[in-house]
Design goal:
five-stranded antiparallel beta sheet; alpha+beta; four-stranded mixed beta sheet
Length: 393
């Protein structure tokens, strides 16, 4: 995919910080051309030129998804910038609960303003709202409600039973058996038109290697990098797939070319692991509760932590009591990078298959639910039957 030119907002209703894509099939069954436009991150400039307290207040207004994670990482990055301590590690239960809640909400509410649950299951929304009320209090029964919602609505079966599924045939069995119990299973069945799409798994975005933090911090000096991230020209995988790629079910689906199902199964596997609470199995792999920070010297600090969607990184510079630079690199930017990102790689592989125009529209729409962006997405379709716009969030 060639790098697109400057983004031109054609409709006043476009979200200023949203992602944009133009889908142009050549005829009803021809090859797919997809141009991806990175989202405008200029709103981050609102955090600069003010005192840190004011900047943190503005941050809370800018982000409604993963708001606690954003606030905690900003706070620790600023502390690292001021204290100039080499590295600190924090465990944050509120960030963990928020991340798990967002993981469930993204599965149940994939379309902005458009519920997928039929009226007979509206009770699930009540359970979701109740779970949201358990995010703050210490000693709440969050994990009890989390497991009940996960097993009763999302999986349609016990978490341990789902984790025991290890092959693509097991996945098909889950789709058939849980179709009447889980709206997620019903939605997952719509991924069938993908067929077999061979896509290599990108290297994991991990900051555990020596020198990697400093390397990423230097790259974040460039604002353009934030909306077009890469390392030596190569994209990175982050989120549930990166953390759960070795699970037998995820790997078997990926090996068989069912990449969308593999991505979705990774999200379900990870949530199922956590259904036992903060001491659930494989916690050493899933560090959704851990935040790390490091001083970069000269009034700069960096903090990072895993969220349900992937690695979130904050790099802040504070001098003379004011925020000089605020850099926030969200997992969505890695996943939807116009070149080398996971979504672009999948679309490139998909372009080699022949899918009818209507089937293509629906598959791209479902793929956005699976890839799970944390920002509004505008997809414009051309060459099918005039021009049509769809939204996903």
């Amino acid at each position: 995919m060639g790098r697109p030119g400057p983004v031109v907002t054609e409709r006043t209703g476009d979200p200023p910080d949203g992602l944009r894509a133009v889908l142009e099939p050549e005829g009803e069954a021809g090859p797919v051309r997809l141009s991806l436009f990175p989202r405008d991150l200029s709103h981050q400039r609102l955090l600069e030129g003010v005192e840190e307290k004011e900047a943190l207040g503005r941050l809370r207004c800018l982000f409604h998804l993963c708001g606690r994670a954003q606030e905690r990482l900003a706070f620790h990055a600023i502390r690292a910038a001021l204290r100039e301590r080499v590295e600190e590690v924090f465990s944050d239960g509120e960030v963990l609960r928020e991340s798990l809640f967002e993981g469930l909400r993204a599965l149940l509410l994939p379309m902005a303003g458009e519920a997928i649950l039929p009226s007979s299951e509206k009770e699930a929304w009540k359970h979701l709202r109740d779970l949201g009320k358990e995010l703050n209090p210490e000693g709440s029964d969050f994990f009890t409600k989390f497991r009940a919602l996960l097993e009763g609505v999302v999986l349609g079966e016990g978490a341990l039973r789902f984790l025991a599924r290890e092959t693509a045939l097991d996945w098909e069995e889950w789709l058939r058996e849980r179709h009447s119990l889980s709206p997620v299973a019903r939605r997952a069945a719509l991924l069938a038109p993908e067929g077999e799409v061979a896509v290599p798994i990108l290297p994991e975005l991990s900051l555990t290697k020596a020198g990697f933090v400093e390397r990423l911090a230097r790259a974040m000096d460039d604002r353009e990098f934030l909306s077009w991230p890469h390392l030596a020209g190569e994209g990175r995988e982050t989120g549930s797939l990166a953390r759960e790629r070795d699970h037998p079910l995820v790997w078997d689906l990926w090996r068989s070319g069912r990449t969308l199902s593999a991505r979705l199964s990774a999200r379900l596997v990870e949530l199922a692991r956590w259904s036992g609470g903060e001491n659930a199995g494989a916690v050493e792999k899933i560090r959704l509760a851990e935040i790390r920070s490091r001083s970069l010297g000269e009034g700069a600090g960096i903090a990072w932590g895993e969220t349900s969607r992937g690695l979130l990184v904050h790099r802040w510079t504070v001098r003379d009591g004011r925020v000089r630079e605020a850099r926030i690199l969200a997992p969505t930017e890695w996943t939807f990078a116009p070149e080398g990102g996971a979504f672009a790689s999948w679309c490139s592989a998909l372009s080699r298959r022949r899918i009818s125009g209507r089937g293509l529209r629906e598959l791209v729409r479902e793929s956005l639910w699976v890839f799970d962006p944390c920002a509004p997405v505008v997809v414009r379709e051309r060459g099918l039957s005039g021009e049509r716009e769809g939204r996903n969030a």
